[in-house]
Design goal:
The chain is built from 13 helices and 28 strands. It is α/β, with parallel strands linked by helices. The strands form 7 sheets. Strands 4-3-5-2-6-7-8 form a 7-stranded parallel sheet, sandwiched between helices. Strands 14-12-15-17-27-26 form a 6-stranded mixed sheet. A 5-stranded antiparallel sheet has the order 25-24-21-22-28, with no helix packed on it. α5 links the parallel β6 and β7. α1 packs across α7. The radius of gyration is 23 Å and the shape is globular. The termini are far apart.
Length: 450
């Protein structure tokens, strides 16, 4: 299958260079113009897509070559309407371990997307040429077609633009800059940026970024570059036929907000009705549900409020004890423990969640099922990602996890009705996982309840 899809990937020299700020400014400026745009994030990040969604009002989606193959990436990308803006992850060439595997560079190649490099110009001038020379010269097929300077003085930029054009003989296009905008800085914590919902004046900041992007970034040239992308080609990804309707309760509030948008889309395509609820604010689970999805997030930041909501905790514990099928990832896994930071949680799992002060089992891993369970059969594998500073007394032993570096551990509390663990799942890594979850939910819906 083929489609003419304008697209461009905006990458950075490294984490912290300002690529999310630049991307949000561009998205806001294009939205203000009335352009039809869609956004994607490279890699497993949950937080940057929230900022994209805050701009566009539609959900940003992830493209990750560690989770799925190039064809699946192009299949998911093909569902975009309008011009697709892809945001890179870390530095342009940074991938799994110390390789470029699954890097922004790899995504740009797989997607056929021209790349634009964001360079932090703070404290630099002529040295910017050395930075660009390194990125352009590392691989002959770098795909880098443009550069945007972040934190650049309006007075200095014309000189830098002329310098770049002269030195590189117009092989790379300077696409403008953003000046220093301290009032628009996006705060950070251990997982990167704070979530979009936590910034009270976010829309004001986004509008300022959009106004500056319109003024200082050559958006018309950027759109021309996006339109120069080759025809997007892909093969359809086979999925199980939709089953009978089934209602899945999904925890969605400030404590539980880390989800992959394509997980929701796939569940809906397979016949699920997703029913959002808030473990923070609601009294109990939604009525007439056949499954529960507790995603990741920051339950540790809201532990007192979660503990105070006794009726919700009791509702979830009772439903799970009655056999309600459940996926609980990372933050959701912590919520099912007896306690988190010594505060009472759901108590379905008889352990405690605690802060370690450092990243625990961080990065991509491949799970191998140690026994049959709801999602995987013994010996089957699944690519996942972990990113957490918290741990529990018993991480589980349903899976054997192994990183590319060779590091290995056991994880996952599993049964024929439960997956609970720190690994985050992208269903397109193995779509049958989503289908099996929904099939188990349908079976539960047919059972006689006590």
């Amino acid at each position: 299958m083929e489609k003419q899809l304008p697209r461009v990937l905006i990458a950075g020299t490294n984490s912290g260079c300002g690529k999310t700020t630049v991307v949000c400014g561009i998205l806001q400026a294009l939205k203000n113009r009335g352009e039809a745009i869609a956004s994607f994030k490279c890699g497993p990040d949950y937080i940057d897509p929230m900022f994209h969604s805050a701009v566009l009002g539609i959900r940003c989606r992830n493209l990750d070559l560690q989770f799925f193959e190039e064809n699946t990436l192009r299949f998911l990308l093909s569902q975009a309407d309008g011009t697709a803006i892809l945001e890179g992850v870390m530095g342009y060439y940074d991938g799994v371990g110390v390789s470029s595997v699954a890097s922004s560079y790899a995504v740009a190649k797989a997607a056929g997307a021209p790349a634009i490099l964001v360079v932090n110009a703070r404290g630099a001038c002529h040295s910017i040429l050395a930075t660009l020379s390194g990125f352009l010269g590392l691989y002959p097929d770098s795909g880098i077609r443009g550069v945007i300077l972040n934190n650049c003085s309006p007075m200095l930029y014309p000189k830098l633009e002329a310098l770049i054009l002269s030195h590189f003989s117009h092989t790379i296009q300077p696409l403008g800059f953003l000046p220093p905008l301290p009032d628009c800085s996006l705060e950070s914590r251990h997982l990167g940026l704070v979530t979009a919902a936590e910034i009270s004046d976010l829309q004001k900041k986004l509008q300022i970024l959009g106004e500056n992007a319109e003024k200082y970034i050559h958006l018309d040239v950027l759109l021309e570059l996006a339109r120069s992308a080759p025809t997007l080609s892909w093969e359809h990804v086979p999925l199980q036929e939709p089953g009978s309707p089934v209602r899945i309760a999904v925890a969605r509030d400030k404590a539980f907000c880390f989800y992959y948008e394509d997980n929701f889309r796939l569940l809906q395509q397979l016949g699920a009705e997703l029913v959002p609820f808030s473990p923070l604010a609601d009294d109990s689970l939604p009525e007439d549900i056949q499954g529960l999805y507790l995603g990741g997030g920051y339950p540790e930041l809201h532990v007192a409020a979660l503990a105070k909501n006794k009726t919700m905790r009791a509702s979830i514990r009772q439903a799970l004890e009655q056999g309600l099928p459940c996926i609980a990832e990372c933050g959701g896994f912590l919520y099912l423990q007896q306690t988190l930071l010594d505060q009472p949680m759901v108590g379905y799992l008889k352990g405690s969640g605690f802060y370690t002060g450092h990243l625990v089992r961080f990065g991509y891993a491949k799970l191998t099922a140690n026994r049959d369970s709801m999602l995987l059969r013994q010996g089957e594998t699944l690519d996942v990602h972990e990113f957490h500073y918290y741990d529990v007394d018993d991480p589980g032993d349903g899976f054997s996890a192994k990183k590319a570096s060779g590091a290995a551990w056991r994880c996952g509390v599993v049964s024929d009705r439960l997956y609970a663990g720190f690994p985050h799942l992208h269903f397109y890594a193995k779509p049958m996982v989503a289908a099996r979850f929904l099939d188990r939910c349908r079976q539960f819906g047919k059972e006689d309840k006590p």
